[in-house]
Amino acid sequence: xxxxxxxxxxxxxxxxxxxxxxxxxxxxxxxxxxxxxxxxxxxxxxxxxxxxxxxxxxxxxxxxxxxxxxxxxxxxxxxxxxxxxxxxxxxxxxxxxxxxxxxxxxxxxxxxxxxxxxxxxxxxxxxxxxxxxxxxxxxxxxxxxxxxxxxxxxxxxxxxxxxxxxxxxxxxxxxxxxxxxxxxxxxxxxx
Length: 191
Description:
The protein is mainly β.
């Protein structure tokens, strides 16, 4: 049999630009990844019976069962649990927060969001429920908000970096009196 799968969260579009209400383009707010929180319902699954059996038409010829228009059943790892949702449906619930990865029919959650290069026009602002690692710098006018640790190999220009945990910078801050770092635990800076 097959399954009818209904997403209970909005999947990222992958777009590098958001259109504001006034019609203008905003390259800072991009839709590149799907964040998920611990205990958040991700999708609902309604399983159907078997694929059917062949029949016989009025002339005695074999008629194959109809092809199902249903979706392939997704696969997942231990980052999710399946709970009964009533009406013969089940829900897939995230067991940890992070970035939802959908690779074909395989679902997983990555707890660290990696930004290759700068947080800037190519990545947009970053808002994440876990840890964030940036392989370069955070450019002027951009923001990083994380519930976990933030590690930036480069520096921070006139930007905002906020963490509910710790912030570590490889090259310090060059904020021209406008750069802001906020950490609830520790700040580790180097020059």
